[in-house]
Amino acid sequence: MKIAIIGSRGYPYVYSGYETFVKEVAERFVSQGIEVHVYCHKNLFDSFPKIVNGVHLHYVPTIEKKSLSQLVHSFLSFTHALFKSYDVWLVVNAANGPLGIIPKLMGIKTMINVDGLEWLRPKWKGLGAKYFHFAAKMSTRLYDLIITDADEMRKVYLDEFGKDSKVIAYGAPTVKDSDETLLSKWGLMNQEYYLIVGRLIPDNNADLIVKGFLKHPSSKKLVIVGDVPYADEYADGLKKLKSENLIFPGYITDNTELITLFKHCFVYIHGHKYGGTNPTMLYAMACNCAIMALNTPFNREMLDNKFGTFFDENQQAVTDAMTLLEKDNDLVSHLRSHVSEGLTEKYNWDSVAQSYINEMNKLLSNNKTAVLPEEK
């Protein structure tokens, strides 16, 4: 079988959930004898090898403008892919929904991972939000298979667009050892800080959490890992908040440093509002963190309603949740001890990759020329 993966920033470049997904599944596809071609944003790479770890790479240019970069890149990638005789196109990002008309007209088998609810996110107001809603709708009309990453996201697509989907989650990372001595870099001590990890954007609710924390009379610190790669009023406003208990390390690219921050935090706080299976939450679960999460259907599904505590979307709820946790050490210890039980087979990368292969097999069941790995 020969497949194309289109719509991410590329491989082995890892920036966000899509790139992590592409890296994890592409390598597993190759190990099962599938010929994998990944389309990469040329401007993000300094060198351009044709094959890395058995994955074939195609470097496609784009327009360096936030609102158009991905769409232009995908259009050019789709055009290139038309001439490569792929058996299946695996597309990520619902923004590519309307482009599905291209392979559909050519009779090419396609599947699309639509990810989250982009049309509801504050950064896409007005025309942007309307486009993402339209694009998601077109995804359900133009692709052979829609893939959602959570049962709750499947419900959204059923309710919003009347289209069923196949649920395949993301996998949890393999976590290596931490180094507690690294905490001194930020003046931290084991279990004496709360942790937030994520982009500083409104729908991740860092402002809500920070302000709720500042209302809470705690001796602990709050570490906010992440930023945005552009000038932004929201992110700048957060970083201007003054308190000796607030620490903004920015982006942390060293894996050992990040694992250390996760493993030694008092509680990891997850304020992400939109989306299905969240890679950062999986990271926290794999690091055996006690988790305090925004009360959303997606977060409740990931934590199975029992592997974390939940807070409503207001500052007082954040303060109250922190007060409860700091008064109940047994609860925090219980959460740490049991959270990894939530990492079922659903969140295992081997199972995730095999599920994609199984769905490709089904799409190609009438294509006798494709060589399909056997289902497990």
UniProtKB/TrEMBL annotation:
Domain Glycosyl transferase family: 187-335
Gene Ontology MF term list: glycosyltransferase activity
Family matches, as Pfam families: DUF1972, Glycos_transf_1
Superkingdom in the source lineage: Bacteria
Family annotation (Gene3D superfamilies): Glycogen Phosphorylase B
Entries under InterPro entries matching the protein: DUF1972, Glyco_trans_1
Limits of the DUF1972 domain: 3-43, 106-172
Name of this chain's protein: DUF1972 domain-containing protein
Organism field: Hufsiella arboris
